[in-house]
Amino acid sequence: MRMQTMRLVLMLFLSILIGRAADGQIVTATLNGVVSDSAGAAIPNAQVQILNVNTGMKMIAETNGSGLYSIAQLPSGSYALTVTRAGFRKSVQTGIVLTIGQIATLNIVLQVGDVKETVTVTADAELINVTTADLSAVVNQAAVEELPLNGRDPSSLVLLTTGTTNVLNTGGGWMQISNAFPNETGASSGGGRQGSTYYLLDGAPNMDPYLELAAPFPNSDATQEFRVISTNFDAQYGFSPNAVVTVQTRSGANVFHGGLFEFLRNQ
């Protein structure tokens, strides 16, 4: 009996860990790449350090025998990447901006020289996606703050994505106010019916299970950004056949900041 109880506890613990890892993959970004020399030969055992310039968070990885590195669980934000290897100049790449749920590739070329010498690239990094086939768009913090919103509700910005429309304005959607929040929304991607779009907030489902609409979004001050995946999303999302909307709330940084707004409505 005691062994069975221990097994149940262990299974529950593992399921929680797996669930948290899956949520992290949905919300956070991953940066991959290959480190090579100027001739294109892979450089193994190079140290790759990534720094979040807003929070000071650091993560370190090492390239494998093929020169490949991969750093996961990165919160969205601005980063700097530093690559070092004996016999080569240190490479520092700034201007790396990662967004929610992004899987990006950034290849680094090291130049032969003293490791005390540094090659710094300050231009915005050109990030590409060679890992997944999904089609998506990100509504970033600037858009959430600056675009006009009715009632300071960012959910309407989901409809800026190509191929999406408000399902409540179609024959495939319906709203029952007595059993829902009045500001619930739902996007239809590619002609999908109500419930065909899956909404997540910080990795957790953000749905009204009765009407299969999106539960209310955080207000514009609390919303960092969100990604709308309109097609070809991975199996980790599940639940719905047409689209996925992943929302991330704002987090703190090492610099004090705040906001001030006035909401005025008259004749």
Could you explain how this protein is built, in words?
- It is a single chain.
- The protein has 267 residues and is mainly beta.
- It folds into 2 domains: 13-121, Immunoglobulins (Immunoglobulin-like, Sandwich); 135-249, TonB-dependent receptor, plug domain (Ferric Hydroxamate Uptake Protein, Chain A, domain 1, Beta Complex).
- 12% of the residues lie in helices and 34% in strands.
- The protein has helices spanning 2-27, 141-146, and strands at residues 29-37, 47-52, 58-62, 68-74, 77-84, 90-98, 103-105, 108-110, 118-121, 135-139, 164-166, 187-189, 197-201, 204-205, 207-208, 213-214, 223-231, 243-249.
- The strands form 5 sheets. Strands 3-2-5-6-9 form a 5-stranded mixed sheet, with no helix packed on it. Strands 10-17-18-13-14 form a 5-stranded mixed sheet.
- Strand 5 and strand 6 (90-98) form a beta hairpin.
- The longest helix is centred in the first third of the chain and has 26 residues, at 2-27.
